[in-house]
Design a protein that fits this description.
Blueprint lengths: L1 H20 L1 H5 L5 H30 L1 H4 L8 H31 L10 H23 L3 H22 L5 H28 L10 H30 L17
Length: 254
């Protein structure tokens, strides 16, 4: 299975570097050159990582036992479900989030460009892959696959809602950018923790705690940065809409 091993090697290398670089734009000054440079590099690395995951998932669907010989206690159908269909869905979800995070910066002055057929197709694809993941999870009675599919459906639908808006404010683009880029980090951190953990303790790989840790941390980051953006927007708008002091500009008549 040299193709699988090749995909895995590149996947781990680019993913590990990308997950370290993820924190540079998250912690650093927003809009600075380092934020843009490392953020763009992170997005490119995540795209490569997700593409390699698609290759790994395809190999798993074709030969589940050959690609995962260490999972001796797992049925081939379950291996296909977790490391085939779910990994394939998470890879598409990561690509979808990274792409949306980039185009929200690129198209902030040309909203109609977001309605490009390729962009619409990618959002439709992630919804379809989420539904497929849930169905495959139902077939093997795996609640985790059904539960995590909600993320893809919600992401695709909210992106469609954003694209359908006639003229979103600049603030909306910033909020979408944060949601998508941090979301891609959540997706890849989740995959690394869960799918990597399976080699150490296969019976605990699907422990909900392992999947919840990146989600909770990622949501906290999204909430914090979106709150910061909204606060800055209100601060900039405050002078124009400052409340009245209650004094009259007219002189008193005595």
């Amino acid at each position: 299975m040299w193709p699988f091993k090749g995909f895995l090697a590149v996947h781990v290398a680019t993913g590990a570097v990308g997950l370290v670089l993820f924190w540079v734009p998250v912690i650093g000054k927003k809009g600075a050159s380092a934020h843009r440079r490392f953020g763009f590099l992170f997005a490119r690395l995540m795209a490569v990582t997700a593409t390699m995951a698609i290759g790994m998932a395809t190999c798993t669907l074709l030969d589940p036992v050959g690609t995962h010989p260490h999972l001796t206690s797992w049925a081939p159908r379950r291996i296909q479900g977790i490391f085939g269909w779910m990994m394939l869905y998470l890879a598409v979800l990561t690509l979808h989030l990274v792409w949306h995070g980039l185009v929200t910066v690129r198209h902030k002055r040309d909203h109609l460009a977001n309605r490009h057929p390729g962009n619409l197709a990618l959002n439709a694809l992630v919804i379809g892959m989420a539904v497929l993941c849930a169905w495959q999870g139902w077939r093997i009675t795996e609640p985790l696959m059904m539960g995590i599919s909600v993320v893809g459906v919600a992401s695709g639908l909210t992106n469609f809602w954003f694209i359908a808006r006639p003229a979103p404010a600049r603030l909306a683009y910033q909020l979408e950018h944060v949601k998508a880029i941090v979301g891609s980090g959540i997706s890849v951190y989740t995959a690394f923790m869960a799918f990597g953990f399976v080699r150490l303790m296969p019976d605990h790989a699907l422990n909900p705690t392992m999947w919840a840790i990146p989600l909770v941390i990622g949501l906290a980051i999204i909430i914090y940065h979106q709150g910061r953006i909204r606060w800055q927007q209100r601060k900039l708008a405050a002078p124009a809409g400052a409340p009245s002091t209650g004094t009259s500009p007219l002189p008193s008549r005595g």
